[in-house]
């Protein structure tokens, strides 16, 4: 049994949806049905975030919602004739969404309401893809993943209850896969009381890994608009190298440092059950792409990874006292409390610096909570650069003409924070 994941780019328009049908049709007829995880079409999640923001601020969201409707209806018109029942299904989803949006309040429940709204992207995409597959005689059935992937209620970053999810997959998903392919949503989960949660932006890769782990799948393939896992983002670097084979460990570190091609949480469930992960191009489905698995390999080409929108925060004791374990623990507790992930940190005698993702609201509250103890300075709009498996030429190449605010190197990894990004 295999798991395929198609992201937003691979279902961004009618031609892309047709291409997914072609990929599924061309799979060997070995009676193994595939669990297909699909993300919202194109940039729909960003569009839904915009709609939600307007509803939350009690503004008129009609125009933003209409853009999303038009986008989806155009895809329907390109794929189906006017009588097809999919129109009614899509209409129903938009109606449900609109009804919910009218109940959104400018309350403390921002994240909870956010999840109920942005989840419609994946619901729409999975309904459309499933109907299209049936239409072109690829046997498939639609599955609502929310009663299957059971999570807690940490909205927007929900944690999976692995035992319940495993049971649900055994009882409700495995039997379906005996009959047909199954099309379900990435990114979503559900609470015990039937509310929708999301697993973190770009979390559909993780969904594929959750299902694969619970199904003991033979492999996972994530279909992308790139040839596979490259040593850098080709949108930022013109001369990338494809890794044909790479270990779970290398990949998890690349994803952690910010290689956005794979969601960082994807690797662990696969590595623990030794399920290989293929990254393949939906534009060249017959090309081998990259295999990520439990392997050893020689040193590979240096990987260049950028994390943008970073913030560097520096703390000093008010009375020039030394930074010690006690005041570090105060800082760490506040970082955890305001959900800041530490991307890089460094301490000197009287100061401590930490590089984190930037979030204006949370940063403000975080600083407020510590300003009685420390003198705090921060810079925003920074880029964190990482070179994995660096060599001196790769460092020279990346640091050229950049003002470096913080720098660190280990045996394998070189990192620095700079005001200058990559143009
Ligand atoms: N190391 C890398 N290798 C390949 N692609 C990368 C890498 N780092 C970043 N990317 C970017 O990831 C994109 C594909 O991931 P993503 O946009 O999340 O796909 P989807 O949303 O369709 O699943 C590529 O278009 C590429 O710009
Ligand atoms: N649609 C969600 C989840 C996701 O993973 O999307 P994609 O596979 O297109 O990155 C998001 O944009 O965050």
End-to-end span in angstroms? 43 Å
Helix and strand content put the structural class at alpha/beta
The rounded Rg comes to 23 Å
Beta strand count: 16
**Number of domain units:** 2
| Distinct ligand kinds | adenosine-5'-diphosphate, aspartyl phosphate
Q: Whole-number average pLDDT?
A: 95
Structure description:
By secondary structure, the protein is an alpha/beta fold. The longest helix has 18 residues, at 62-79. The radius of gyration is 23 Å and the shape is globular. The protein folds into 2 domains: 2-224, Acetylglutamate kinase-like (Carbamate kinase); 303-418, VC0802-like (2-Layer Sandwich), CATH 3.30.2130. The chain has helices at residues 14-25, 44-56, 62-79, 86-101, 110-118, 120-135, 162-177, 204-215, 248-257, 267-272, 325-337, 360-370, 392-399; strands at residues 2-6, 34-38, 140-142, 181-185, 188-190, 196-198, 219-224, 245-247, 277-281, 290-293, 303-317, 342-347, 351-357, 374-388, 404-409, 413-418. The model has no long low-confidence stretch (mean pLDDT 95). Helix content is 38%, strand content 23%. The strands form 3 sheets. Strands 3-4-2-1-7-9-10-8 form an 8-stranded mixed sheet, with helices on both faces. The structure holds adenosine-5'-diphosphate (ADP) and aspartyl phosphate. The site of adenosine-5'-diphosphate (ADP) has 18 residues, from loops. Keywords: Amino-acid biosynthesis, ATP-binding, Kinase, Nucleotide-binding, Transferase. It is an enzyme of class 2 (transferase). One of its GO terms (molecular function) is ATP binding. It comes from Adhaeribacter radiodurans. Its EC number is 2.7.2.4.
């Amino acid at each position: 049994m295999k798991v395929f994941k198609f992201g937003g780019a691979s279902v961004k328009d009618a031609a892309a949806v047709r291409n997914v049908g072609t990929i599924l049709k061309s799979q060997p007829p070995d009676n193994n049905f595939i669990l297909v995880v699909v993300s919202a079409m194109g940039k729909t999640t960003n569009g839904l975030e915009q709609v939600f923001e307007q509803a939350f601020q009690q503004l008129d969201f009609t125009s933003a919602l209409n853009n999303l409707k038009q986008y989806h209806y155009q895809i329907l018109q390109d794929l189906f004739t006017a009588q097809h029942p999919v129109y009614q299904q899509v209409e129903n989803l938009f109606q449900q969404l609109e009804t919910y949006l009218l109940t959104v309040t400018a309350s403390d429940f921002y994240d909870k309401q956010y999840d109920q709204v942005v989840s419609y992207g994946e619901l729409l995409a999975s309904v459309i893809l499933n109907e299209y597959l049936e239409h072109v005689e690829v046997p498939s059935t639609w599955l609502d993943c929310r009663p299957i992937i059971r999570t807690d209620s940490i909205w927007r970053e929900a944690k999976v209850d692995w035992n319940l999810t495993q049971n649900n997959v055994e009882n409700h998903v495995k039997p379906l896969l005996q009959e047909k392919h199954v099309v379900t949503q990435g990114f979503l989960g559900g609470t015990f009381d039937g509310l929708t949660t999301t697993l973190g932006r770009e979390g559909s890769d993780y969904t594929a890994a959750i299902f694969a782990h619970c199904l003991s799948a033979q492999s996972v393939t994530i279909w992308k608009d790139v040839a596979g896992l490259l040593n850098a983002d080709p949108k930022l670097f013109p001369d990338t190298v494809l890794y044909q084979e790479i270990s779970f460990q290398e990949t998890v570190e690349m994803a952690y440092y910010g290689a956005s091609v794979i969601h960082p949480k994807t690797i662990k469930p696969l590595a623990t059950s030794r399920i290989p992960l293929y990254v393949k191009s939906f534009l060249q489905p017959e090309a081998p792409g990259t295999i990520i698995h439990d392997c050893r390999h020689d040193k590979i080409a240096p990987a260049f990874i950028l994390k943008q929108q970073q913030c560097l925060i520096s703390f000093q004791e008010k009375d020039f006292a030394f930074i010690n374990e006690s005041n570090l623990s105060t800082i760490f507790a506040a970082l955890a409390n305001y959900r800041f992930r530490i991307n890089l940190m460094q301490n000197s005698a009287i100061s401590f610096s930490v590089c984190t993702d930037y979030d204006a609201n949370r940063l403000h509250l975080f600083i407020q909570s510590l300003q009685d103890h420390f003198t705090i300075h921060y810079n925003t709009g920074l880029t964190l650069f990482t070179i994995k498996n660096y060599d001196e030429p790769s460092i020279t190449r990346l640091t050229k003409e950049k003002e470096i605010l913080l720098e660190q190197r280990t045996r394998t990894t070189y990192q620095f924070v700079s005001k200058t990004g990559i143009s």
